Amino acid sequence: ELFAAVEPLLPGLREDGVSVWVLGAGPYPAGVVALQELLDAASEELEPEDVWEPQDMNDTCLYIFTSGTTGLPKAARVSHLKSIMCLSFYELVGGSSRDVVYLALPLYHMAGSLLGVVGCLGIAPTPLHPAGATCVLKEKFSASQFWDDCRAEGVTVFQYIGELCRYLVNQPQRPGERQHGLRLAVGSGLRPDVWRSFQQRFGPVRIVETYGMSEGNVTLFNYTG
């Protein structure tokens, strides 16, 4: 649905040697790689390990996009090693395979895709929960629907960016705001006044504040609250 914004730029992109891949029904002009057709035609047999195993764990695994605080959004390189390190995120903050994680963050950011989705995959399975934690993806955050979503989906963990919690405490008070299964909120940028208001209003939810950077090599966790 975003291809129309890119199509006028195709001649310049071709001159710069930039490939354009599109997922979704076509048709698309020549020079555009239609991924859906390739996926439909691909074999379900796994290729030999030496085809897909990285030669060096510091090689590029994927690119995420920054929020554009200092200009337009720009790509940031993420290595295979850093991606694998993100597998342990939820276990580091007290998550388990019984948890249901609510994720409304953009998946082109590291917080949503790597800490959120990959973190759910990395939680050690148990016989009753053999595939890591459950991840509930919300296309767009809604402060008015949040607690209804939590009750409907059995959410136990909320991954936030600080202002999402401010949106929640700024909502008009409603009956049943403390009737939920949320036990843990984890994220970055939560201001002290919002932290206090959130727990006073919505109950004794444990909050673990973290801080890291896409291209940094150190991450901080506030375990003590």
UniProtKB/TrEMBL annotation:
Pfam families: AMP-binding
GO cellular component: endoplasmic reticulum membrane; plasma membrane
Keyword terms, alphabetized: Ligase, Lipid metabolism
Xref: InterPro entries: AMP-binding_CS (IPR020845), AMP-dep_synth/lig_dom (IPR000873), ANL_N_sf (IPR042099)
Domain AMP-dependent synthetase/ligase residue range list: 47-219
Any one GO MF annotation of this record: long-chain fatty acid-CoA ligase activity
Catalytic activity: a very long-chain fatty acid + ATP + CoA = a very long-chain fatty acyl-CoA + AMP + diphosphate; tetracosanoate + ATP + CoA = tetracosanoyl-CoA + AMP + diphosphate
Source superkingdom: Eukaryota
Family, similarity comment: Belongs to the ATP-dependent AMP-binding enzyme family.
The protein's name: Long-chain-fatty-acid--CoA ligase
Gene: Slc27a3_0
